[in-house]
Amino acid sequence: ELHRYPGLSAVRGYWSEVFSAVRGYWPEVFLVFIITAGFGAAGLRALYKEKTSSLRLYLFLWLIVPPATALLISWATGMLYNVRYAIISLPAFILMVGLGLARNGRLFAVTGLVLLFTISFASIARDRFDPRYAREDIRAASKYLETAVEKQDRIFFSGVSVRPVLEHYYKGSHEIESLPVQLVKTAEDARNIFKMLSKDQGRRWLVLSRDWKEDPDGLLTKELVKNQKAELAAEFTGVKIFCINR
């Protein structure tokens, strides 16, 4: 849901969507928050006692400047704020936590390491085995298109960042075409795209994956769902394939 709303509006004005995005994950979120806050506090305490002032200033700036810059750019330009833009501060946080573990006694260090390893292994296990973490199944979508698309059909794709992946896996003879409107701002844009897709002979296949950049409000998907000429032909993890003029 955070990808659907640009800038800081995701936090400021869409709390219900933000909460729905992490529904069912509150125990993990709370646990990570408590442990991170504890380690962060220990790290700050050790950093405060650090005699080398230049080290304190260096780590402090490293921690603060990248996230603050990302927030400022997001607020000023309306770009999506994503944690990856602030990930450059992670090494500084790890160094600070390591300082806190090393300088707050053996018991704290051992307990802290055990908790860190536990969270790490749980995170890896969730990522590998929990279906809620599954990536877009572009490979399966490509295999489906290879068998379903006929010679006179055309394939369109909405999802600029994923399109190269589809082109890599798709072994058919059809060209993967982009939508004529790069940004769907209004319902009228969505209707115009649908008219373009349905005016010629032959079927039109529309692959939707990570389409929040081109269709941030899901207007095109709504237009497809309500129109009888469009059919949801196939659905894979993170991918929907609509067939028009079937």
Mind explaining what this structure looks like?
- This protein is an alpha/beta fold.
- Helices cover 55% and strands 11% of the residues.
- Helix 4 (53-77) packs antiparallel against helix 5 (90-102), helix 7 packs across helix 8 and helix 9 crosses helix 10 (219-226).
- The model has no long low-confidence stretch (mean pLDDT 82).
| SSE pattern, N- to C-terminal | HHHHHHHEHEHEHEE
Strand content is 5-15%
Structural class: alpha/beta
Mean pLDDT: 82
Write a brief structural summary:
The protein is built from 10 helices and 5 strands, in the order H-H-H-H-H-H-H-E-H-E-H-E-H-E-E. With 246 residues, the chain is of the alpha/beta class. A 5-stranded mixed β-sheet has the order 2-1-3-5-4, sandwiched between helices.
Write the layout of secondary structure elements.
Blueprint: H1 9-12, H2 15-21, H3 26-49, H4 53-77, H5 90-102, H6 106-129, H7 138-148, E1 154-158, H8 163-169, E2 176-178, H9 187-198, E3 204-208, H10 219-226, E4 230-236, E5 239-244
Helix pairs in contact: 3-5, 4-5, 7-8, 9-10
